[in-house]
Amino acid sequence: MKPAGKERPGIPGTLHRFLQRFDQVPAESAWYLADIGEARGLQELNTRQNPQILKSLKQFAIIESAVSSNRIEGVEMDRERIMPLLVGGSQVRDRNEEEIQGYKKALDLIFGAPASLPVAETTFKALHALVRGEIWDAGQYKDRDSDIVEKYPDGRERIRFHTVSAAQTPQAMGRFVADFDQCLKERTVHPLIAIAAFNLDFLCIHPFRDGNGRVSRLLLVLMLLSAGYEVGRYISLERLIEENKERYYETLELSSTGWHEGTHDPWPLINHLLFILKSAYKEFESRASGIQPPRGEKHERILEGFESLPETFSMADLAAKCPGISLETVRKAVKDLKGEGKITVLKAGRDALWRKVGK
Hints:
With 359 residues, this protein is mainly α. It has two domains: 14-288, Orthogonal Bundle (Fic-like fold); 297-356, Arc Repressor Mutant, subunit A. The chain is 57% helix and 6% strand. α9 packs across α13 (267-288). It is globular and about 70 Å long.
């Protein structure tokens, strides 16, 4: 992809283009919108059922989101540290843990009061400050030009996209927010299409030196909540994006090609994000709208998860195998397994490790 050439004040963007002339919605997009609309109609019914399951889903969604969104960017942590850090209040040990914990704090802020977080530059910077922690430019736009570079295993590199220059970033972000507000006010496009287009334009502007991907995913969750799409509270959109990471990056590159010139095709990424949202609703319905499991079924599910674990495992490993089951129930099952002599403690405390007996 070549640079855009001499830059000009009026940087083209997807939202700006939709305001000038809205593209015809592709059939695939229309199908996604219809399916998501139907799922949203069942949202209130599903959230009234099985409150204990919903509580557990919320807890696991936050954990999965914090881990997955950072892992997409190459930020990882030991699996034994996940629960102590994100649930138990353990102190961070390194830079990676600081960023993962910061992402959880950002989600807590979003889920706590989404209405108090407007789609504004102050919000973008506040979320960035949380996910980047104590780094020197946390919460600040980039102060030098940066491109998106793809690195290959053999050491080769290529510039995948030339982002908006540091000098033009504040102006671009200001117009970008105004375009989004106008799209919603005038109902130029369906809100979900506007949200997906916002995501694309944000990533093309690339306002921060680092952390743009994570902030874009936080904003996706926030904007969906503000528009009445609550599924991100219960199902990790970030996990679904990670599970489809190759397609995510492929559609992002397809949709960003020609962005500077205003000749790009935004629909590959828009459709992929609609696919992620539809998948989240499908998973949510299967977990939240079913009949309350009979007594003993939870125990059987925990045992099934236990059998699929490696010889050595942590509480977090077993809990991840049992979505929709509370941590208290999983802990009780582990205590029972120990009492039955099926497992033994390798390491006690917050970072406890267990080993299957007879393996």
